Amino acid sequence: MAASKPQMKIAVLTSGGDSAGMNAVVRAVVRIGIIKGCETYIIREGYEGLVRGNTHSQDTKPLCKTEFTLDYQVAIPQVIDNLRFGYGSLLKNGEGDIDEQGIATTKTLKGKYIVRVGWDDVRSWLSEGGTLIGTARSKTFRTHEGRLAAARNLVLEGINALVVCGGDGSLTGADVFRQEWPELISTLLKNGSITSEDANAYAHLKIVGLVGSIDNDMALTDLTIGAPTALQRICEAIDNINSTAISHSRAFVLEVMGRHCGWLALLAAVSGGADYLFIPEKPPSDPWEEDMCQVIQQHRAAGKRKTLVIVAEGAHDASLNPIRAEQVKTVLSERLGLDSRVTTLGHTQRGGRPVAWDRILPTLQGVEAVNALLEATPSTPSYMIGMRENKIIRIPLVEAVNMTRAVAQAINEKDFEKAMSLRDPEFIEILGAFKATSLLDDSFKLPADKRLRIAIMHPKSLLWLRASDSVGAPAGGMNAATRAAARYCIGRGHTPLAIHNGFRGLLDDKIDVLSWLRVDSWMSRGGSELGTNRTQPDVSLGAVATQFQKHEFDALFLIGGFEAFTSLKILEEARVHYPAFHIPMVHLPATISNNVPLTEFSLGCDTSLNSLVDACDAIKQSASASRNRVFVVETQGGKCGYIATMGALAAGAVLVYTPEDGINLDVLRNDVAFLKTRFSIDIKGEAEGRLVVRNEQSSKIYTTEVISEIFKEEGHILFDSRHASLGHTLQGGIPSPLDRARAVRLSMKCMAFIESQAAKLAKQPEKKRRATSDSAAVITIQGSLIVFTPVREMLQYADMKNRRGTGTWWSGMKDLVEVFGGRTALIPS
Ligand code: ATP
Questions:
Q1: How many domains does the chain have?
Q2: Angle at the Cα of 499 (from 595 to 445), degrees rounded to 5?
Q3: Which of 138, 227, 393, 613 has the fewest CB atoms below 10 angstroms from its CB?
Q4: Residue 313 in marked binding region
Q5: How far apart are CA 215 and CA 281, in angstroms?
Q6: Where residue 759 falls among pLDDT bands split at 50, 70, 90?
Q7: Is there a binding annotation on residue 594?
Q8: 591 is in an annotated binding site
Q9: Burial of 156 (0-12, 13-18, 19+ CB in 10 A)
């Protein structure tokens, strides 16, 4: 097949400290680049590889370029032209060497730092930690000579577009390189290193930055690639430490990474239920020893058997004197007499397989990076790809770099207020949430007449929902949300009333007041501490209203899935008959199915995706180990394909079946054709496994077993097939830190919503209070916004029959699964 002139030659490098998800970036850039008609290269060892370039030009030919004849047309021939060049698998195998300057290199690739890669060279890279293409901290690139050599190497290799994935330093380097580029080209022309044709052809460097950093320290983006995995590692450590701390009634001081940014420490403190926190942006009031001891003494006096203090690596006091974990430990031991220990997590935070979100985020951002390069013109700025809530965004690189530097500068100038104001709003909110949920003091208390009795419930179903319809399940983060609400209530002087076992429990008077200590360990607990129960269909709304009155509820906080949404709708509609329902009512979506209308995320989905990815990684490995095999994996999710689709994207599945799209014979025929093509162009003799994900309710006829049998039958000698159902494992046990942190943040917002709605109602005469429809709302995440949407308005976005939302944001992700799996490229539609 004749190759046409590439659209662009894109090179991708990873730089600075490694982070989980960098390999997913490389995979995404390479595959999308190829699909869009580009040639794709990797640059080994970060900027150092760019400076060194390829010294042995005779070695630049591919290690292997498998030729095959296909007697039919494929959809995107570019994929076949760029199937594999052999270096990708070499890098994955980790062959190593160290050069005279101590830079890691490989024996086979000695003298070769800019390497062409193809579609299959990045196969299975999604699940690999660290960066397979190597990273370095390059002193030479900081010099003008170094950058001149780098520019020359790019021109010599014909590369006109660069993707840099790294932290703020790496992106600063990218910005410097971009700004200098015209001058570098004219110097190269003057000194005869490049021709005038080259100088014209490469007058403009297209460059885009992706933030790969465990610290989450880049301004203007919510989340950096690698931060969720590092946070996961920290929380696993905290959960382990907690049990031993309780056993011995000890204090633990945990030092976590973060030189200039306290994000990891803050999120770990919120998700791990810490007692005290030291971060660079917000030093404690002086003297910190007294402040800390007072807080911890209060917690011990309330009955806590363990103490957890989190210290960011770069923590300091208000005069910029470093605060070290050992110092904190000494203070706890000497002043409070606590048996105290220090745990420094160090590099374990960087390592390990990426969590689901560190596969999804780099994949989506990698796509956006290639699009930004293809759309770039000499007049457009170079972009950094970021994320705001659930929206992938482009931010001018120079703005993000300047803003990030401004935070460090403000800290150096001891202007901590400015440092905090430059962090994104989520950071500030989470710090507020940490204080509200960890401190035991009276300074936040409201006057007695403003205090409320707030009922908290994890409902499964109400009234007309039949027991058999009720498929809801506990979701990771429900308990964390309840803990946050209860602690907030206590801090404000409200009464947090736990209703156990849903509406059934309400009718049975299973209601009690939550105490500060009782909810202490709920952050890390899976399932539902309040319990959910299937309500009898013959329960009357009048009885529910009577209970509301009897227990004097001033507000209701529902944490649950589609059933909670339906229950809220019913209660709001019943306000015409029952005055007891004229109180603020709010629903926080929590369901692994993510099927509540309008909101883009529910609590529990992140935990569930992580469980799915863990299971799929193990299955994929076993599929590769046996022989050419297609594994069909069944997921939960009811009639909503979210978990199957996003799980397929994160696990690197080649196909996904959802209830929304269904399955028919035409689809299956094409999918079988794809699998045959795909297996026939694999390297012979090398075992390959592939995953197909199917939601449990995608089709009544084409069950997981049937599909697997069809694949097996049609695969003949090319591949066989097995199937597995993940079932309840997807409910995930221990909630993920992202679910816990989101639970705390959204729960705080729900409490503020209740307070403001209650204040509005309090203006009406007590006996005649009439709540407006906006006082019964669902907290929803919509793009970059968090919005309280009245439950009435939610109905227009609900498919009540199928118990899911309409117009979901993730529906296009199914196509992306098929793009990355190669289905789109290999089978003409
Ligand atoms: P991490 O967040 O893990 O520290 P980082 O990207 O911030 O990652 P740095 O060591 O600061 O890591 O930067 C990585 C590389 O980027 C440096 O080794 C250097 O090659 C390049 N770089 C950083 N700053 C500049 C600069 N001002 N000019 C040119 N190159 C730079």
A1: 4
A2: 100
A3: 393
A4: yes
A5: 13
A6: very high
A7: yes
A8: yes
A9: middle
Q: Is there a single domain that holds both residue 540 and residue 520?
A: yes
Of 25, 43, 135, 142, which is best to mutate to test ligand 1, by the most ligand atoms within 8 angstroms of its C-beta?
Answer: 142
Q: Are residues 217 and 268 in the same domain?
A: no
Atom of ligand 1 nearest to the CA of 166: 6
Lookup: tokens for 824: 């789109």
Residue 141 CB–ligand 1 contact under 6 Å: yes
Q: For residue range 280-303, what is the model confidence (pLDDT) as tens digits?
A: 999 998 899 999 999 999 999 999
Closest Cα to atom 13, ligand 1: which residue?
Answer: 169
Taking the CA atoms of 177, 178, 181 and 183 in sequence, report the sign of the dihedral they define.
Answer: negative
What's the pLDDT tens digit per position in 364-398?
999 999 999 999 998 889 999 999 877 899 999 99
Bridge partners for 555 per DSSP: 454
One domain, residues 233 and 206: no
For the Cβ of 142 lying below 6 angstroms from any atom of ligand 1, the answer is: yes
Instruction: Identify whether residues 218 and 233 lie together within a single domain.
Output: no
User: Are residues 193 and 75 part of one domain?
Assistant: yes
Does any domain span residue 260? yes
The neighbour count for residue 807, using CB atoms within 10 Å, is 9
- Domain coverage including residue 242: 227-349
CA of 170 to the centre of ligand 1 (A): 4
Q: State whether 43 and 120 are in the same domain.
A: yes
Atom of ligand 1 nearest to the CA of 141: 20
**Complex ipTM more than 0.90, yes or no:** yes
- Are 503 and 552 in the same domain? yes
Pick the last residue of a domain from 349, 378, 397.
349
Please give the number of the atom of ligand 1 that sits closest to the Cα of 147: 29
Could you tell me the distance, in angstroms and rounded to a whole number, from the CA of residue 16 to the centre of ligand 1? 6
Do 47 and 143 lie in a common domain?
A: yes
User: Residue 798: inside a domain, yes or no?
Assistant: no
Residue 419 maps to a domain = no
Strands 276-278 and 340-344, bridge-based pairing: unpaired
Whether residue 215 lies in the annotated active site: yes
Query: Measured between alpha carbons, how far is residue 258 from residues 164, 281, 292, 784 in Å?
Result: 21, 11, 21, 26
**What's the rounded mean pLDDT across residues 74-103?**
75
- CATH, residue 173: 3.40.50.450
47 Cβ closer than 6 Å to some ligand 1 atom: yes
Residue 102 is assigned to a ligand binding site: no
pLDDT in tens, 548-593: 999 999 999 999 999 899 999 999 999 999 999 999 999 999 998 8
Tokens of 4: 């046409």
The active-site residue out of 215, 217, 222, 739 is 215
CATH of the domain at 635: 3.40.50.460
Q: What is the pTM of this model?
A: 0.92
Among candidate residues 349, 374, 405, the one where a domain is terminated: 349
Distance of CA 306 to the CA centre of its chain: 30
Q: Which two tokens stand for residue 544?
A: 């529910």
Minimum CA distance residue for ligand 1 atom 25 = 173
Which two three-digit tokens encode residue 558?
């529902």
- 146 labeled binding residue: no
Q: What is the pLDDT of residues 631-648, one digit of tens each?
A: 999 998 889 999 999 999
CA of 593 to the centre of ligand 1 (A): 41
